[in-house]
Amino acid sequence: MVRCSCSFLRKYGNFMDNLRLFTKGGAGGMGYPRLGGEGGKGGDVWIVAKKRVNLKQIKDKYPQKRFVAGDGANSRISALKGEKGLDCEISAPVGIIVTDERGQIIGELNKEDDKILIAQGGLGGNLLSNFLPSKGQKRIIHLDLKLIADIGLVGFPNAGKSSLLSKISHAKPDIADYAFTTIRPQLGKIMYNDLKQVSVADLPGLIEGAHLNKGMGHKFLKHIERTKQLLFVVDITGFQLSSKTKFRSAFETVILLTKELELYKEDLMMKPSLLAVNKMDLPDAKDKFSELVKQLQNPKDFSHLFGKDEIPGKNMEFQHIIPISAQTGEGIEELKNCLRISLDEQSNQEKEKFSEKQLLNLRNSNLLYSDLSSKYANVEITEFH
Ligand SMILES: Nc1nc2c(ncn2[C@@H]2O[C@H](COP(=O)(O)OP(=O)(O)OP(=O)(O)O)[C@@H](O)[C@H]2O)c(=O)[nH]1
Ligand SMILES: [Mg+2]
C-alpha cells in the first residue's frame, strides 16, 4: 500500500533522485578543400550545478531528455575558419554524481557552478581529415542525487524515524504502524535557540538483507554518504517484519544495521554516530534499555545471536546513546543537545585540522625562505655600472 499525504505531495511530490539523459556534441563543420579552409568545431555538452534546480524540473522541461549541442559552421569563402557550434549547458542540482552507461563516474557537482564536460563536439573538417568533419560524441548519462544533510536517520522500518523527524522539525512526514511507510527520503530542520539550523534526512527503513535488495534495498543509502553524522534509531521493543521472519531485539537491530552499512560502504562506519533508543514510553522499556546498554558494551559476548556473516567487522562507537520517546517527547531535548554537541565537536576538529595544516604550510614556506636566505647570505652583490 503506497499512501501520500497532501503536504507530502506539495513538498516532496514526485521526488526524483535519478535521471537518465541522452547527450550529443555537435558535428564539426565542413572544411573548404579548394582554399584550405577549416570547418568550425561542434559545440560541447556541459552539465553545470545550479542551486534552484531539481531533477523533476529537468524532466518536465525536457521530456525527451535529449541534449544536443550546435553543429560547427562550414568553412566559406567569407569565413574560411568556420565558427564553433553552440555549447549546450544542462543545469542540474548541487549534489549530483554523473555516471555513464557502464556506471563509471564522470564527475560530481558538489557546489554551485561546478561544471563537467559531458559530450565533446566533433572536429571541423581540415587538411588532415581531407576536409571532412567528424561527428560529435554521443553519451548516455545518469544523474544521481545525494541529499546533503547534517544528520542521516538510519533504522529498521517502524522504529519511529519519521515520528522523530516530525518531533524535532517542522517536517510532516507520513507516520504509520506498518513497515516502509516512508518510501522517499525527506528533509527536516532542527532550529536551535541561537538560530543555528541542523538538517536531518529521514530515509526509508532498512532491513537485514538490504544488500541482497531485500525491502527497499540499499537504494537510499547513498543519501547518507553525504551527511556529516548518522543517527541510528531503534525500537526498544525490537522488530519483526512478518510472522515468517525472525524477531530481532533492539541490540540485534543495531548490529544488523551496522552490518548493512558495512556491506554498503565501509567508509560510512567512520562517520560519527549517535544512537536514539525510541519508544521508551512502552512497558518494560527501562529494563530493556539497561540490557541493551550492557550488550552494546560487550557485543562479543552476544555473538551467538547472529549468523557468522551477520556480524560486522567493526562495531559502531556511538558518541551518545539517548533513550527517547518520539511520542511523549521524553529525551527529545537531550537528543537535540547531543546532536548539537557532536556536530560542534566535529566542526571544531575540522577547523583545528585545517589550521594545523595551514601552520605546517607556513612553517614549510618559512623553512624554505630561511634556507634560501642562508644560501645567499655570503653571495656578494656586484653592482652593475
Ligand atoms: N509507543 C510509541 N510509539 C511510537 C513512538 N514513535 C513512533 N511510534 C509509532 O511507531 C510506528 C512507526 O512510526 P514511524 O515514525 O512511521 O516509523 P519509521 O521508522 O519512520 O518507519 P518506516 O517509515 O516504515 O521506516 C507508528 O505507529 C508510530 O506512531 C514512540 O516513541 N512510542
Ligand atoms: Mg518513516
TrEMBL record:
Residue intervals of the OBG-type G domain: 149-344
Location of this chain's protein in the cell: Nucleus, Nucleolus
Keyword Nucleus annotated: yes
Keywords: GTP-binding, Nucleotide-binding, Nucleus, Ribosome biogenesis
Cleaved signal peptide residues: none
Major localization listed first in the record, in broad terms: nucleus
One GO CC term, this protein: nucleolus
Sample GO molecular function, one term: magnesium ion binding
GO aspect biological process, one term: ribosome biogenesis
InterPro entries, A to Z: G_OBG, GTP-bd, GTP-bd_Obg/CgtA, GTP1_OBG_dom, GTP1_OBG_dom_sf, OBG_GTPase, P-loop_NTPase
Transmembrane segments: none
Boundaries of every Obg domain copy: 13-148
Family as reported in the entry's similarity comment: Belongs to the TRAFAC class OBG-HflX-like GTPase superfamily. OBG GTPase family.
Name this polypeptide is given: GTP-binding protein 10
